[in-house]
């Protein structure tokens, strides 16, 4: 039977007995080794065998490894393979489109990420008083670099270093002799470069001061100007003034900030130059475009070195009226000859003149040239020593940007302390701030008494709690995190300004690092200002070991601010204020967790918050307290008691946040609005 099937269909078989499979050749060397090409007799012979086609029809061909293209195409064209392939293809396309659309939607709906100057508190350093590295009694740039770990220990990522330009150090260094150099007291440009690299290596940012209004009279520009040299002739404000019998009659009644006439006769040029501050700090002439360009070049120089921003000071003094008319007297009946104090005149012609904001905007435009690189936005701050309406103008407009924010000193300038005065200081800023702008707060500065000396030691912790739980960017002056005090009394008359730095700079005393000699500030025999006598108990080293210390509370507050979205960027609503307490909440749309701050700035107080906010739960948990032993305890919201200077951060859950209640609509503010989605664990803007 086999012979009959073999006869019916011819098929080539090798004499070796195998069926040839040309789709897969395992070893081509086989033919070379076993085939003799010179002898045809040794070649394999083939024979013809007949196979019945009907017998092969039942043999189904299946896919196999190494099948040739022709066989592969026979299978791929079959419906079961083609349909499966097309389904997979369109599923992949649909999934890709969904991912693209979801990404676009998330980007479109996501709120703007907070920038670095919004996300972290700012730590302000007066370099001469922070850390001495060379035992000369003066703090320096190397000293700051040695103590960068302290900044990160505080959970702070932005440092603000006050003026360290080369200077005669009159007015504590705010009149530069050379804007392109470091004063030798603080080190060298190489020291600055090393400090900058160390700051950035730690992921920190650095801001520096720039006071463009004036220079030192030792500045090269002034020396050339007083000699009428080329373009520098009009770099400063010069006017003829009468001189007779050794007495100078100034062009008008303008008075300097430090008192007495703001005009000073120069024996070299035989004219008077104008100075808004000390007589050794002549004002630049900002109506001269060449002067403006000089300041732009200075900005470019330091930004080019890699600093992350500037704090501009004394901006309101940039321009003066050209008509030189006398300024109006506050007391019109006062004899004009007796006017000598700055407070005796209305400064209508020497501050905030038309064109001043145009100059500030040009500074911003120059800084923007260095902000195009992702993650390298350059911050611009300005001083805020004006009335509230004028201060808000430094924010710029919706379409024209100026400062990211003018620094807010409302909490420093309060005349008295109470729950009501704190509320008024906070509300004054929030209700006047332009929509969409970012607030900021400071409770200390190089130009104001420290908290302990200004309002009392018992209020240091509660002021820090206020600072770090308000919306916006908090600014901490060095030493406030441990509750440092002034060295001596500030009861000094204006005549003593710039005379004895020990008397006039009590808030600039050396940083208290430990309980060793000179508080660890210097290894030298003395420091430029005396260290406060309380340094053995008020210093960083010892407070790191106390669980209930001012330093540890400060750290816990910065950690809370950085980790909790409602405090980081949520709503703030005033709940209650009286002569003793100020109460407000921080909450975020979509998040049922709320933080309520109960801060005592007066005497012992008991308050029923449940009556003020009916939706408040009957109990709340103390998340943080100025008394650490209270943390984690539950309190009855109908009976919340606080001692003098005590602060509580309460945490509770609610389905009805305060900012949605009709009764509190006028008491709520939000700067960078965001809503939380618990389903996707992300923030979005369309609440």
From TrEMBL:
Residues 491-510 are annotated as: Disordered. The keyword Transport applies. Keywords: Amino-acid transport, Cell membrane, Disulfide bond, Glycoprotein, Membrane, Phosphoprotein, Signal-anchor, Transmembrane, Transmembrane helix, Transport. It is a single-pass type II membrane protein. GO terms for biological process: amino acid transport; carbohydrate metabolic process. Pfam families: Alpha-amylase. One of its GO terms (cellular component) is apical plasma membrane. Residues 124-503 form the Glycosyl hydrolase family 13 catalytic domain. Gene3D superfamilies: Glycosidases, Golgi alpha-mannosidase II, Oligo-1,6-glucosidase, Domain 2. It is found in: Apical cell membrane. The chain crosses the membrane at residues 87-109. The keyword Zinc does not apply. InterPro entries: GH, GH13_cat_dom, Glyco_hydro_b, O16G_dom_2. Disulfide-linked heterodimer composed of the catalytic light subunit SLC7A9 and the heavy subunit SLC3A1. The heterodimer is the minimal functional unit. Assembles in non-covalently linked heterotetramers (dimers of heterodimers) and higher order oligomers; the oligomerization is mediated by SLC3A1 likely to prevent degradation in the endoplasmic reticulum and facilitate heteromer trafficking to the plasma membrane. Disulfide-linked heterodimer composed of the catalytic light subunit SLC7A13 and the heavy subunit SLC3A1. This is Amino acid transporter heavy chain SLC3A1. It comes from Aptenodytes forsteri.
